[in-house]
Amino acid sequence: MLYDTPKLAEAARQVEICNACRYCEGYCAVFPAMFKERSFASGDLTQLANLCHNCRGCYYACQYIEPHEFALNLPAALADARQESWERFAWPAAPARLFQRSGVAMALALVLGIACLFWIATTLTPANGEGFYAVLSHSTMVAIFLPAFVLPLAAITIGLRKYWREVGGTRIRWAHLMVAVRSAATMRNLSGGQGQGCNFEDEDRFSNARRHAHQAVMWGFLLCFASTSSGTVLHYGFGIEAPYQLISLPKLLGVPGGILLSLGSAMLIHLKLKADPALGANGAWGAETAFVLLLALTGVTGLLLYAATGTSWVSELLAIHLGSVLILFLSTPYSKMAHGFYRMAALVRDAQIRLG
């Protein structure tokens, strides 16, 4: 069978060997999905690649890794195919190639975003307002962040439609969605499918540290998003404007969210520094690390901004925090942030195949 790219061809070679061996049958969701097939089209490989959580247990259990002539490295082969699929589905494609491969590009975008917010804060300071609204008016924030939120969502929707067509996705039923949400919420596939953890940072030793770090980041991000959403409802629905007290819905959601996001990101960086880069996407290590650092910066600066309320540090911290949030939003369809959307789509498609 002919494949569109050399990375897909290499993924096919390794998957076919794994499909014949079947030693890893009890591992993560990739292997039951793989063993249902006799041959693999490009869409099948794309689905398997995005279903893979890179726990690396299969690599350390494999008898065909180097120096064997088969030279299997399934986590890296699927990671390369996965990253390539994100670039292929992204719209427009050019930013994806830049952000997926270059931590320098991510850092430069962050610096420019912060500089832009600094400039806006110093030149468009409102005549009145409380808290950070004394630095940047509500209308200015809406004018900046509404397009920065809506346009990336539109771009990622286009990418997901391309993905769904390639992997042969059909009409989604409620049961498919519930199975996928449950799997994502518990990070089941980061336990290696056997509940004892994965081998991401400790080689042949099992650990749940990466699973817990991902859960902290995911729930922290969702709490922060819920905090912003609740503040929007209070502002427009009830006329209650920021700043909010600690005993208020935005703060009760946002403070724990910021803590979880910061701690989870710090743990992910620590684990990534311990892990073998040869078992991930070739050339993407710097960009992935830069993305996690951006998540950490978003959480930490949000907490510092709240702590600095009423001090002279608000202006500087607001620019840094909003700059990091701005780049996080704008880079969503093109950075590692996209993996959450595609992995969720892969889990839904896997549920479709299993449940019918």
Quick one: overall form? elongated
- What amount of the residues lies in strands? under 5%
Number of distinct beta strands: 0
Cα-atom radius of gyration: 22 Å
- The arrangement of helices and strands along the chain is HHHHHHHHHHHHHH
Structural class: mainly alpha
Approximate helicity band: 55-70%
Overall pLDDT, averaged?
89
The low-confidence runs, each spanning 5 or more residues with pLDDT under 50, are none
| Count of helical regions | 14
What number of domains?
Answer: 2
Specify the biggest β-sheet.
none
Distance between the termini: 27 Å
Q: Which features characterize this protein?
A:
356 residues, mainly alpha, 2 domains, 14 helices, Citrate_utilization_prot_B, Citrate/tricarballylate utilization protein, NarG-like_sf, transmembrane helix, membrane
